[in-house]
Amino acid sequence: MSLLHFATRHLILQVLRELGLKARPAHKTFKTCVAMSHASSNIADFRKFFAKAKHIAIITGAGVSAESGVPTFRGPGGFWRKWKAEDLATPKAFLKNPSLVWEFYHYRRELMLKKHPNPAHIAIAECEARLSVQGRRVVVITQNIDELHRRAGTKNLLELHGSLFKTRCTSCGNVVENYKSPICPALEGKGAPDLDVPDAQIPVDKLPRCEEKDCSGLLRPHVVWFGENLDPDVLDQVNKELAVCDLCLVVGTSSVVYPAAMFAPHVSIRGVPVAEFNMETTPVTQNFRFHFSGPCGTTLPEALACHESEKVG
Length: 313
Fold this sequence. Notes:
elongated; six-stranded parallel beta sheet; three-stranded antiparallel beta sheet; SIR2/SIRT2 'Small Domain'; EC 2.3.1.-; protein-succinyllysine desuccinylase activity; 313 residues; 12 helices; 36% helix; mitochondrion; cytoplasm; NAD; Rossmann fold; alpha/beta
């Protein structure tokens, strides 16, 4: 085992321990998965695994939504006014300036109401519906907060980072779905992303408020901000799904955001085939059996299409 492979193994096991996940002690399997220097792009071979899979886990990231025209707020040009997402998506920023943070999320909510699922979202949802009739399971584990998977028809959905269309009361903790447009009258027409747009400076009592009886506390988006922990119940469900899946797809993610970046490598350690669908390779591509380059809306429909072995009718 090379020094690189040893370091990769050490990193994976260290992160798994921190997450409370257990890697099965299978040295040979691990060596096979980690030492793979070139992931295959043979779609026919992937389809053989797909045809036999009974429990498919699909991990999705920002790249899927980007193909629907959703801004990622990452890389060059990834700004809202003069701020990056990590400047505003924090508890500290909300405490300091809830009006500014709500402007940012109001902009994102209104934008998402105009966006639509793309062929990748639809291919996943149609695959889930089709395989469920055959007694096979597809579960989507997404880092996205835009609900495009839900709108495409996905039923088995685990949202790691929450949803733009849910709110949580900072006083009573109540979580509810909220699709109001605008979410409150004071935000109507606010949130434009242009650099020269002045901050609205909306009084706190005019920002979204809790409608629970005798509460009226300040609402915040029910999303996981930088510096916050993922919901332990959601993580527990993710862990259970990954522990039993027999095929894993990683779609539109850079595999650098933790802990989600370690999900697929953990599955690969078990000897389960992992297929990465992304515009480019990632730091963990070499650990996977397959890698398919290109837009997910182009590669996924072919990969998840009805297989000739499936019973039709």
